[in-house]
Amino acid sequence: MVKVAFCDFRFLLLIAAAVFIYIQMRLFATQSQYADRLAAAIEAENHCTSQMRSLIDQISLQQGRIVSLEEETTRRDQEFRQIKSLLQHHRRKDLQRLMDNVQVPVAAVVIMACNRADYLERTINSVLKFQRPISSRFPLFVSQDGSNPDVKSKALSYDQLSYIQHLDLKPVETERPGELIAYYKIASHYKWALDQLFYKYNFTRVIILEDDMEIAPDFFDYFEATSALLDKDKSIMAVSSWNDNGQKQFVHDPYELHRSDFFPGLGWMLARPTWDELLKENHKGRQFIRPEVCRTYNFGEHGSSLGQFFKQYLEPIKLNEVQVDWKSLDLSYLLEDKYTMHFANIVHKAKPVYGADMVLKAYNIDGDVRIKYKDQSDFENIARQFGIFEEWKDGVPRTAYKGVVVFRYQTKRIFLVGSESLKQLQIKDF
């Protein structure tokens, strides 16, 4: 019985040992797994630490680059501020130099237009031919009276000019029956355009052209040179580029200029102070400067004047072709205090002619000729013989200065002298 119990005890002990060994083996296996995991974790930790250190190194490197870039940015900002300051300095100098070199316009040039688009195009092209190189000194305008679409379209097709438009729908009342309404409309347009250019655009001088004109090569030089006369001599109302007796057979000297009591028009320059006064009163006996050889040519056979005088007086006009260096010439002889004596000396030297057949007698005389006329009728008779303009306006013959009309005949000068002219010129009667 005891033996059986002992055997059972050893058997149980063996089972316990087996269980213990199994447990130990399981524990060892578990410990091995944990050891492997721990080693992997340590390795992973070491790898993470290595990556962290690498990342820290990269961050440190990037921080170093950032610091370097910040320093470079600061340096470049300083350089930029220095360059900007230097550039502003040079810009101020260049602007000042530019302002020093900027030329105040001599005069605005305005082409007065209405309803003749083809004429306007010819005039603009003629003006631009000589105006382009000096456009800053002679800004170009077209002023249209009315709303003709072709004229407006033509004017706006040019980038080189400014366009202004006069619209006046009020009915025109003439002072006397039978007068042409067109002339009143033209006068209204002229006043409006001059007001615009003098008071809105603030020009000191304006050159007025019509839409049926061509200009000479020295047109702008002529007006620039004579602008000084307008400034110095208040007795000059305007400077004109036109001579009513400027037909080919009656002119010769492109350098010759005259004063006149008769307003020539057809391409003329006016100063703002004179316009200010004209708005309040008439021209107060002022005179005009005109050339012997025209600086404008009027090709407008069809217009408000209905072609009056065109074939006889306008078509044969000689347009100057000589490039006169006006800036080199002394024009002071045209000032009021000098011109009367200057002109009187020329008239005084001319040889007097009397009686009939004056054209023939003038033909046979060498040098200048003077012919006295008694009154308007007598003047018209003599003018008709030579073929010059017979017309008077307000008691003044066309082109006259103190009643004296001068024109060329075979290059010599012919002076038609009024009955009071010599006294006004302080010349003893002949």
CATH topology of the largest domain: Spore Coat Polysaccharide Biosynthesis Protein SpsA, Chain A
- Domain count, please report it: 3
Order of helices and strands: HEHEHEHEEHEEEHEEHHEHEHEEEEH
Percent of residues in helices: 40-55%
Quaternary form:
single chain
CATH homologous superfamily grouping of the largest domain = Spore Coat Polysaccharide Biosynthesis Protein SpsA, Chain A
Within the largest sheet, what's the order of strands? 3-2-1-4-8-6-9-7
The percentage of residues in β strands lies in 15-25%
Q: What is the CATH C-level name of the largest domain? A: Alpha Beta
Give the structural class.
alpha/beta
Subcellular location: Golgi apparatus membrane
GO molecular function: alpha-1,3-mannosylglycoprotein 2-beta-N-acetylglucosaminyltransferase activity; manganese ion binding
Membrane topology: Single-pass type II membrane protein
Cofactor: Mn(2+)
Describe the structure.
The protein is α/β, with parallel strands linked by helices and 430 residues long. It has 11 helices and 16 strands. It has helices spanning 2-101, 117-131, 149-156, 181-200, 219-232, 272-278, 310-314, 336-349, 358-363, 376-386, 421-424; strands spanning 108-113, 140-145, 162-166, 205-210, 213-215, 236-240, 257-260, 268-271, 287-291, 296-298, 351-353, 369-372, 392-393, 396-397, 405-409, 412-417. The chain has an 8-stranded mixed beta sheet, with helices on both faces. Helix 2 (117-131) runs parallel beside helix 3. The protein is rod-shaped and about 190 Å long. The termini are far apart.
